[in-house]
Amino acid sequence: MKLLTELWIMFGFFKKLFSTPYRNYSANQVITDIDNGWKPFIIDVRSIGEANGTGKIPGCKIIQPHFNIQKIRRKIPQEGDILVYCAGGVRSSKAINTLMDSGVEADRLVNMRGGFRAYASNGGKISRR
Asked: What are the structural domains, with CATH classification, of the chain?
């Protein structure tokens, strides 16, 4: 019993260590939720060249590289969900951490795991404009 208790405590520690205060959605969940009427404020944190080359998620309001995300802080609405994505999901999580550091509430922020590559490969609609 003691071993089970210790394992449970360790599990809780590691779960907390690797969890994030913001939401992580799969590309499929993003696609389904948008198709069902979800309208987050969408930020693409890839370079303009990447976005122009592969397209973007329809409704994307801002394309701003992750390392300069603080420059657009004032353009982000005060309420509602914010979907942040990049090519694979790493830069968007970095951008989200910067946004949280600048005062955006974590429960409003959504990172798309797998990024735009996963979104496109799972049949997500793409805007080329």
From this structure: 22-121 (3.40.250.10)
